[in-house]
Amino acid sequence: MTTVRTRFAPSPTGFIHLGNIRSALYPWAFARKMQGTFILRIEDTDVERSTSASVDAILEGMEWLGLNFDEGPFYQMQRMDRYREVVAQMLEQGLAYRCYMSMEELEALRERQREAGEKPRYDGTWRPEPGKTLPTPPAGVEPVIRFKNPLDGVVAWDDAVKGPIEISNDELDDLVIARPDGTPTYNFCVVVDDLDMRITHVIRGDDHVNNTPRQINILRALGGQTPVYAHLPTVLNEAGEKMSKRHGAMSVMGYRDVGYLPEAVLNYLARLGWSHGDAEIFTREQFVEWFNLEHLGKSPAQYDHNKLNWLNNHYIKEADNARLAELAKPFFAELGIAEAALAQGPDSASVIALMKDRATTIKEIVENAAMFYRTPAPEAEALTQHVTDAVKPALAELAAALRGCEWTKEGVAAALKATLAAHKLKMPQLAMPVRLLVAGTTHTPSIDAVLVLFGRERVVSRIEGALSA
């Protein structure tokens, strides 16, 4: 049985968004499911647009999501000698030929074809055929190298997503596989790489469907076996446009930087074009166990930010609090709360445990938890509204009760309840001013749990300090 070998072959010409990284997730999952090999190949032949920063973004995004590769990264620019070797071999075997038609001549030919209502294409002027006399090569002109595409028959493959696809060879002209300076072209490099790396399954975006018949013909000419192709439909943004940087897509690491968990993003991404019955939430291990090509979607998938938030909230609630506390540190730092301040305040893991249930991101948890590590600065208008002369006696009595009660959620709740009863108040009439004086805001989780985390000394001194001011 042939070992499954898949690949992710991004171009490092910009940041990598969810639509891009999905083309890594599925071949990774298939390789893992089949105990195969997952290869990373960087297609960096676009020298003007390729950057090392983009390569770093690809590697960082894959690492964050846990998409570990078994071989690579291989860089096409480091394989130029191999491509030139194969071009020379094809010329020698009559699989390719030198074409001296200039760009001006080619454009003039295409213009004539358009005017005649024909499909613009190279006409084979320099293609050697039995009995054909070729023009004399012009002096001082470096030729391109063209592949001798079959003249008749069809290219057919059974796409794992789109089903049977068939293209007539007379629809395809002779592809340029090397430029005048000898540098190979994209479609040629891809074939040599897939052949050398023994790729068995090509799982990629459907923007490559038009390249596939050309690549299959070159692969067959070189004696290679056609891999299984699975062309994934486009990922659309919420406006129904193709997901792209130009249309506001966020980079993969951008999700980390606003506080999404990698397991939530991976879970969401998996469902963005694949399904396993009605399962919405599953672990990485379940995803690999369930994954197959048969359940890849045939229609474009549409990004839904609310769905991602719902998933992230689920994973935040399930996550270990110590892990969340570690992940939260840079977000606290962004708010000017250094690790020293965290160390002086309540245990951050305990704070996060209290704050996380309703949060959609770690950043949101931290924004709500910041009150535990700052000196309260309630607005004057809120103080006037809630800390009235009528409630001050109750606040003084509560402070005294809190000095002596058991410092647990139950003990604090009992002190609050006794104070409410003694002063015939309702909970908001007491809880609101307490929240303002202790935390600086009227919006907190359960007041007894919040006070316990702040600590007896802080709570009592802040209430008494406000009353004596």
TrEMBL record:
Top-level taxonomic group: Bacteria
Keyword Protein biosynthesis among UniProt keywords: yes
Top class in the EC scheme: ligase
Region (Disordered): 114-141
The keyword Protein biosynthesis is annotated on this UniProt entry: yes
One example GO MF annotation: tRNA binding
Annotated positions binding ATP: 245
Residues annotated as domain Aminoacyl-tRNA synthetase class I anticodon-binding: 323-466
Annotated Gene Ontology cellular component terms: cytosol
GO biological process per UniProt: glutamyl-tRNA aminoacylation
Feature: compositional bias, Basic and acidic residues: 114-130
Annotated catalysed reactions: tRNA(Glu) + L-glutamate + ATP = L-glutamyl-tRNA(Glu) + AMP + diphosphate
Ranges spanned by the short sequence motif 'KMSKS' region, renumbered to the chain: 242-246
EC number: 6.1.1.17
PANTHER family to which the protein is assigned, alphabetical: GLUTAMATE--TRNA LIGASE, GLUTAMATE--TRNA LIGASE, MITOCHONDRIAL-RELATED
Role, per record: Catalyzes the attachment of glutamate to tRNA(Glu) in a two-step reaction: glutamate is first activated by ATP to form Glu-AMP and then transferred to the acceptor end of tRNA(Glu).
Protein name: Glutamate--tRNA ligase
Source organism of the structure: Trinickia dinghuensis
Gene: gltX
